[in-house]
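Minutes, project check-in
Item: structure for the 375-residue chain
Input as provided by the requester:
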Amino acid sequence: MKVRAAVLREMGRPSPYADSRPLAIETLELQPPGPGELLVRVMAAGLCHSDLSVIDGSRPRAMPMVLGHEAAGEVVEAGAGVEGFPAGQRVVFSFVPVCGHCAPCAGGRPALCEPGAQANLAGTLLSGARRWQAGSGLVHHHLGVSGFAEYTVVAANSAVKVDDELAPEIAALFGCAVMTGVGAMVNTARVAPGESVAVFGLGGVGLAALLGARAAGAYPLVAVDVLESKLALALELGASHAVQAGAAMDAVAAVREASNGGVDFAIESVGHEAVLAQAYAATRRGGTTVTVGLPHPARMFSVPAVSLVAEERTVKGSYLGSCVPSRDIPRFVALYRAGQLPVDRLLTHTLALEEINLGFDRLAAGEAVRQVVRF
């Protein structure tokens, strides 16, 4: 079938992207779903820094590629062997397709699925197939989703069922921002009521982490960012303190003062090693620093080695929010419906597919939290 999609053919084009137009809206041929796969009509897709890091070349991927990994849609057709996904079923995508059989999957850590990681790096579906075609050439999939398209084919293991009452533009946010941010708090950090938390970086994932910390009963809950507008939103969403990084007062000192010597958990969501070092410095003795950001692979992070032992510090990575998507997306949706996770407050803009390059300019400038393309 013929499908309009946003295709990235070259990484590293200069901003502003509204002028350089790294994403071209093209009409591609989408092959039918194979065994274990689904054809899905995409209803909404979010713009995330993980997409931007492919556009600017800091997260190298195979080219050309249909971008987009945070999305929601409606099943059109199921491939051979797929059960439980009838036509019309609403789904949210997970950006790690899980095989269910490798050692991490068997150990309850599907975010680290080995075949899923291999497929994502290669730009294929979990089966190894590529269903996108432009003329005689194949086009790669982004993280098994390729959500910036009217329709997409995904592994059934990349889809999580949700009900029709959840608005698509909100449902899409659960596929990355919410799963990553809230998951980092409740699965990776396992914040308990009364434990102190600082969130460094208040993009979609960082603010979702703040929502997760608030729902878990964290106090004090310190928000850190360079932009006053995002700090103001963080206070509205439940932060007890706001610290403007880069201001006259040192951000680390301000966090430590607000938390009586350092927080139990510091979450870094910027994807920059210097910010991760700040988050580590703001964590108390015996505390845990969790990072969900994705810096350039060449970047290195260093800490005083003795502090790991003498202060019993922990540094943890969190990918996909350490989630089991089929378990966690429904429970996070339930918390949203109960008013405990006001995810809708993260949505700041809706776009047409043709406006996607402008949307990435807005994201790069910090002028948006979460933008969603509506189809």
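Outcome recorded: The first helix runs from residue 17 to 20.
No further action items on this chain.
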